# Entry
Amino acid sequence: MTLFSINEQVSIRQLGQDYLAYSAQTNQTIVLESLAYRLLKLLAEPLNIDDLLTIVKNEAEFAGMEVDDKTVYLETVLRELSARGFIVKVLTGSDY
# Structure
């Protein structure tokens, strides 16, 4: 099972109403939307995609979305954060 975790080289700061995240690995700074910010905070402890999807399903701002849309949205956010060095995949014993 693959777990996701925040890259330890990431720092997050609040600037006014926005949150900025900086990845020392890729030297990128991005403005985080609310779900991406929450995901990075949650990923201080490794979580799998099912746990993350459960959290997204319960978010009020996504109440009107279908489950499939939430899944696609979550996968997109995870893929983008991973590609930019903000989160990492943590392999467990079953992944080897």
User: Anything to note?
Assistant: The CA atoms of residues 56 and 73 lie 9 Å apart. The first strand starts at residue 2 and ends at 6. The chain has three helices and six strands.
